[in-house]
Amino acid sequence: MKSNVAIVTGGGSGIGLAIAAKMCSEGIITYIVGRTADKLRSAQEKLGSNARIKVFDLDRISEIPHLIDSISEEAGSVDILVNNAGINMKKPFSDVSDQDFASILHTNVQSIFAMSREVVRIMRKQGHGSIVNISSMAAQYGIPFVIAYTASKTAVEGMTRAMAVELAADGIRVNCVAPGFIRTPMSAKALDSDPDRKNKVLGRTPMKSLGDPDDVAEAVYFLATESSKFTTGVVLPVDGGNSIGF
Prior knowledge:
Elements (H helix, E strand, L loop, with lengths): L4 E5 L4 H12 L3 E6 L2 H11 L3 E5 L8 H12 L4 E4 L14 H29 L2 E6 L12 H21 L4 E8 L5 H8 L2 H9 L9 H12 L10 E4 L8
Parallel strand pairs: 1-2, 1-4, 2-3, 4-5, 5-6, 6-7
Helix pairs in contact: 1-8, 3-4, 4-5
């Protein structure tokens, strides 16, 4: 079954933009969802005629059903969902407030649950669909100062497996990609300003370099499409060996 319509959350920049670009280049009508209209319009210009934009804040959980309904009515189907959007917070463990912790889980876990639930209702009627969630090295091993982010990404991996088992009978596959340290403007700024951290990252990465957003996009595309038609419930690290490096 050819995939015709995809949704990529956080598709306006970084890894999300690379994922959307791969989808569009393969002829898939791709809806990029994000908070900032200017950023989305700029992305749409780069992506070309297969790109569509939806300005939406995923923290507005109660409005997600309307968002998905509007895309479904406009596009006629939803074949792929990539849950890429997420936020991070770097704070010492004891400085993280209850509100801080809840905020990260709200965006990184509850919005993925709600997006997936609404899309699954459409995919069930179609009899097919593919969902790809985005995790992190924070769910593979311990990283200090990101307790809430770590909890959220570990939850995403657990949800991936639970969804995969429950939805397989409906023709819906659910997988996850766990990027390592990827070269984006945000990560470059953070690592270049902290040489010790950068050396630590590269020191435990056997391939001795940062990845490119396109590396993640290729893995997402593989899991989202018929190339992986007998694969569900996996967490695929795209990390240059970082998660198993010494």
